[in-house]
Each structure stands twice: as structure tokens, then as C-alpha cells.
Design a protein that fits this description.
The chain is mainly α. The chain contains two helices and no strands. The protein is elongated, with a radius of gyration of 16 Å. The model has no long low-confidence stretch (mean pLDDT about 85).
Amino acid sequence: MQQILIMGILALVILIGGITYMGIAGAAIIYCLGGNGSPRNRRIFFGILGVLMIYAFVCVCIYLAKYGWPL
């Protein structure tokens, strides 16, 4: 019973972390595309950062689906 509880809490933490991570990546891309007065180099940096974060998230999901959890 305790192992099920621990696995449930771990799954919830991973789910919330993944949602937060994707939210931050989306916010970086939206900041990049926005018509704000920030310097162009900063917007380019946040755009590249957001795209790399989404790409890394997709790669991790594919890896976990293919090979399973590494621990």
C-alpha cells in the first residue's frame, strides 16, 4: 500500500513538473513573439530557449516511452 502511495505522489510531482516546464517554455516563446520594447537579442534568446525546452521535453518523452524509466 505504501509503495502505491509513493508511486502516486511521484507521478503527481512529475506531472506537475512537466506541466510547469511546458508552461515556462510557452511563456518564453510568447515573450519572444510579443511586441514589447525589449532588445531584439533578448527576444531571440528567449525564442531559441523556448524551442529548445520543448524539443528536449519531446525527446525525453520519446526516450521514456521507448526504454522506460532509467532507475
